[in-house]
Amino acid sequence: MAKKEVKATNQTASERYTKRQLVCSERYCNQSDLLCALLEDGKLYSLSEADEIMNRFMKGRVKVC
Length: 65
Description:
By secondary structure, the protein is an all-alpha fold. It has three helices and no strands.
């Protein structure tokens, strides 16, 4: 049986995914390491939440010793 692909444009507010689903998704294939580090196990995230977490991290300041 073929898997159904979910398009981001068809996402409803209730669609939430685990860390593993997001890391393994085609959408985040280039950011999988970043998602592994930032997302918590056992918690569900929407695509917009995952994007926001990554954006906040990328815009953060670097501490200088």
